[in-house]
Amino acid sequence: MHHPGAPWAGGRGEAPSEFAKASTSAAAAAPGDPVIPEEFGEEQTIEECVAEATNLADTLDYFDRCVATTDANIRSVTDLAAAVPVPDAPWFPPDLASWEARWVLAHITAEVARHTGHADIIRESIDGKGSYELNERADGFLDDDEEYAPYG
Length: 152
Prior knowledge:
Elements: H1 16-29, H2 46-51, H3 56-75, E1 83-85, E2 98-100, H4 101-115, H5 120-127, H6 131-138
Antiparallel strand pairs: 1-2
Helix pairs in contact: 1-3, 1-4
């Protein structure tokens, strides 16, 4: 099943809760690959998400299913030191193989806080800056005049 357009769910164009589901699922079963329910379909870019017209009820239903899956995965984590495989993405260092489950859970909390109650996804679609670039700039690792270059 292909999920309805849900640009509110994540940053840098990926399906929002896919990272959370994959990460917490991996933590619960580490080591091993996460199991993502087939009904969630493939990840989509922001352009693919907004290209499909969906109604509010379908979008909220999809959101509720993502929340329930993420909640179940988080509740199944029993070892906060479990190694969680790092997804293959250009914004992660290529030599980073895993995080501890405790880091993933803290990261999910930060991501939810970042995206809740404001229009971050709208800002990302206008200026093209994702959270990793903004964090590097805010932490002083990247000057305003420097171009952001993800790993890879």
